[in-house]
Amino acid sequence: MKVGFIGLGIMGKPMASHLINKGFQTYLFDLNTEAVDELSNMGGHPCKSNQEVAENSDVIITMLPAAKHVYQVLFSEEGVAKKSKPGNTIIDMSSVSPEDSREFAKELKKNNLSFIDAPVSGGEPMAIEGRLAIMAGGEEVIFNRVLPLFEAMGEKVVHTGESGTGSAAKLANQIIVSANLAALSEASVYASKAGLDLNKLFEAIRDGLAGSAVMDAKMPMIIERNFEPGGRIETNYKDLGNIQSSANALGVPLPVTNLVKEIFSSEIANGNGKMDHSHVLNFFERMANHRTSDNE
Ligand code: NAD
């Protein structure tokens, strides 16, 4: 199976590297040529455009910032939809809304192309380790055909149902992750102002009911004040907007998500959109006029 991979950023680069390492012929494109060069040195085939990826591949994976980038890559004049061989499969692993995913599936079908929406969870560390959680929506027969690709990049791969259900699962995941980040930050500021060392707090509670994958991944970053982005605040904010539009259309109230979205919005307004999303700590520190540690 020849695989195309478009979007070699924080997540896409390590994901594509696993495909190359597992022996798949992998055709690569990103606007950032450095990322393409890096993966070419590992054995991938560099391409100069999305068109070149489409012409050389049987399955094309996109891992792009947001739905508007996916629309452009798939449906522009020189895009993947027009330049792929009929019968090929497109897998979008970006985080978009279920409505966008269903629209992609419908439009690609007109070109005789099948589509799977397969967003991921686990962030950069799990992408690097090849242990992502992958939630995939689309026809089961197509899912089974591309499963070896998912297994090269992920540890837990679930076929969630028809088109759009992968994206719905990812948005549900993001409600939980975002609320968790806010709660972890609020608790850290409270505990610190009450006189606790955050290392002790982490040690005391991580294996109790409050412990979580979010806590394990983000508490060390909070303690070290290392806010180099794995997942950016602005990327997470985009997900919160998609949750709102999707839930509004379904008539689902979002009291928790709406509040959390305002916290993320304040961080962006304060110039912190490119920081890791654990930097929402800063919002709670500003409110409490308390810094949780002296680390830089
Ligand atoms: P990123 O910004 O680091 O990477 C996106 C890449 O797409 C960039 O390298 C950019 O140059 C490339 N790109 C943009 N437009 C393009 C185009 N027209 N043609 C070719 N390449 C193009 O973003 P990321 O953090 O890797 O996230 C990618 C997706 O994965 C997003 O939808 C995000 O929500 C989702 N996601 C991110 C994380 C995370 O922790 N970072 C976790 C799970 C899911």
What does the model show?
By secondary structure, this protein is of the alpha/beta class. The protein has two domains: 2-163, Rossmann fold (3-Layer(aba) Sandwich); 168-288, N-(1-d-carboxylethyl)-l-norvaline Dehydrogenase, domain 2, CATH 1.10.1040. 55% of the residues lie in helices and 14% in strands. The chain contains 14 helices and nine strands. The protein has helices spanning 12-21, 33-40, 50-56, 67-75, 80-83, 98-110, 123-129, 140-153, 165-193, 198-205, 213-224, 233-250, 255-269, 281-288, and strands at residues 2-6, 25-29, 45-46, 59-62, 89-92, 114-117, 120-121, 132-137, 154-161. The strands form two sheets. A six-stranded parallel beta sheet has the order 3-2-1-4-5-6, sandwiched between helices. Strands 7-8-9 form a three-stranded mixed beta sheet. Helix 9 crosses helix 11 (213-224) and helix 9 (165-193) packs across helix 13. Nicotinamide-adenine-dinucleotide binds next to helix 4, strand 7 and helix 7.
Question: Quick summary of this structure?
Answer:
With 296 residues, the protein is α/β, with parallel strands linked by helices. The chain contains 14 helices and nine strands. Strand 8, helix 8 and strand 9 form a beta-alpha-beta unit.
Please write out the topology:
Elements: E1 2-6, H1 12-21, E2 25-29, H2 33-40, E3 45-46, H3 50-56, E4 59-62, H4 67-75, H5 80-83, E5 89-92, H6 98-110, E6 114-117, E7 120-121, H7 123-129, E8 132-137, H8 140-153, E9 154-161, H9 165-193, H10 198-205, H11 213-224, H12 233-250, H13 255-269, H14 281-288
Parallel strand pairs: 1-2, 1-4, 2-3, 4-5, 5-6, 8-9
Antiparallel strand pairs: 7-8
Bound molecules: nicotinamide-adenine-dinucleotide.
Nicotinamide-adenine-dinucleotide binds at residues 6-12, 29-32, 35, 50, 63-66, 69, 72-73, 94-95, 120-121, 123-124, 230-231, 235.
